[in-house]
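We store sequence, tokenised fold; for instance:
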Amino acid sequence: MSTMLKIDFVSDVSCPWCVIGLRSLESALSELAGEVEAAIHFQPFELNPTMAPEGQDLDEHLLQKYGATPQQFAATREAIRSRGEALGFTFRMERRNRIYNTFDCHRLLHWAELEGRQSELKHALFHTYFTEGKDPSAQAVLLDVVAEVGLDIERARQILASDEFAVDVRALERRYTDLGIHAVPAVIINDRYLIEGGQPPEVFAQALRNAATRVEGDAI
């Protein structure tokens, strides 16, 4: 009999390491099938909450934020591309030359959880930005993604035209920053165990096994 775990996956749509973390987590869960199951809840985090609607050139943004050299950028991008490829995800770095505000993505993800399609939308948003290089802040792009995963496009249009779920998302963002989370991905298991960063599958597998063992021990 498998052990059920609750997982809060705190992340941003514009974070490549969050893609790697999610793929690694899912790989670990697949490896542990029959031993561990998980209910994953995607929680909001904005790397750039004050980003202007038109976004910013990616290299310019990274230089301002991290002060790295072009050579360092290139090395990091190659590491991300390679890690993604090993996990079955395609990063098309040449298509992603700007970074955007992601608040509307998080509002739609909040709604999608209520509709039971949050995971599908999360994966589709990652693909839209990192593989297709599209603007995840553009309403037309978001509506296409919503339709792609089988959500109600008119309901999504209504949400995007209003401030619906804004208060909910802001409250969740504050909750996780108040818990001390200032970088993503952050994976919280059963509100007790934290795994930080885009760890490889074997790290997630060991952490999941440890958490499941503790759950079983608490139940005795």
